Amino acid sequence: MTNPFFIAASADKYSIARLADIYNESRVDYIVPMPMNAKRLHDYVAQYDVDLSASVVAVNQDQQVAGIGMLGVRGTRAWITRLGVIPTRRGRGVGQFIMDSLLTNAVSRGCQSVLLEVIEGNEPAYGLFSKLSFETTRRLLVIRRAPNPLPAETLRVEPLNIDQITLFLSRRPPVASWLNETPSILAGGSTVEGLCVSLDSGEMGWIVYRSTPFQLSHFILGSVTDDLSDECARALLRVVHTRHPRRDTKVENLPDDSPLWAAYQALGYGIEFTRIEMIKPL
Amino acid sequence: MSKIVIIEDDAQSARLAARVLKKAGHEVILAEDGEIGLRVVFEHKPDLVLIDLGLPDIDGQTVIGLIRENDDAKHSLIVAFTAYPEDTAAEMAKAYGCDGVITKPIDTHKFADQVAGFFRRD
Description:
Number of strands of chain A: 12
Structural class of chain B: alpha/beta
Strand content of chain B: 15-25%
CATH topology of chain B: Rossmann fold
CATH class of chain B: Alpha Beta
Structural class of chain A: alpha+beta
Largest sheet of chain B: 5 strands, parallel
Oligomer: heterodimer
Strand order of the largest sheet of chain B: 2-1-3-4-5
Number of strands of chain B: 5
Order of helices and strands of chain B: EHEHEHEHEH
Number of helices of chain A: 8
Helix content of chain B: 40-55%
CATH architecture of chain B: 3-Layer(aba) Sandwich
Strand content of chain A: 25-35%
Strand order of the largest sheet of chain A: 1-2-3-4-5-12-6-11-10-9-8-7
């Protein structure tokens, strides 16, 4: 990408620790603070197929870093993430320069569409993406539940093995957000767990999630027998929280019109913030 | 004098808060991320923990949950110290059992009184 003021340096020329520092510096006053240390960024890059050779660090003519943007690539689809401009270098077209560079890199890798998410209320970023012909597809909720033990369940519950987990995930319609697509979930490795619950009505539901020592995340729910009922969704969530009563839970990118939202609310989840998903065909 | 742990990754913000609280006579211990914060809180059992919700290693909410689960530390006052929008911060703080919220950036003229208010309430 050419620009009289900035150079797009490939992010793979920087250490993960340096990239984390740049990212944190660019987001220090962000609407929802989401800093990352090197380990967290390393995991993020691996789990969400971020291609560092297609990701950029914007550098000005004095070799000062002005901002950062990352590009995930899955087949012919790309995803822009971790975009930020260092506060003291804003207002000089850095954001658009980074976006143009990422879009160019996506095209050069054969991508046919680019997705991104912007936090609701971040008007400058939303305005930039709209100007670049990104169109809103939906609103996505980031929801949390504080640790809160529940009474023991008497449902029939079977653990799922990794083959069953992979099979159930593969049967989903292709509507998951990037963070919840099957590669994102399975990249959790040994933290990925799955359960199948049978109700007295005969309905069987499944839930797949990630379980780390501190947090549960990446919940995906489905039905084995039919459409997932609200009763079954609540049962699945209750089973997980009964098994992990002391664990904090964060579920990202639940579509705001999801029929599952009522079940989450019934189990004590609240909205942390909302993202707007946008797409641009290339 | 009270013992206060500040868990905050933004060094500038942490130093400013620490300076004001030390001037008010408190003992202050800084922790730059959630893991260090947990270690410090469990070791020192402070009277009050000021915790940023956006930490670089573990979410602040998760850290709060872990403090509340610890028998030795669960009686510490916990105050969310955050740049989140005020409504969201208040809801998160309530859901996770915090004793209150102080939004950033701090007002250096009011900050010590805001913190003292949590001790009076207790």
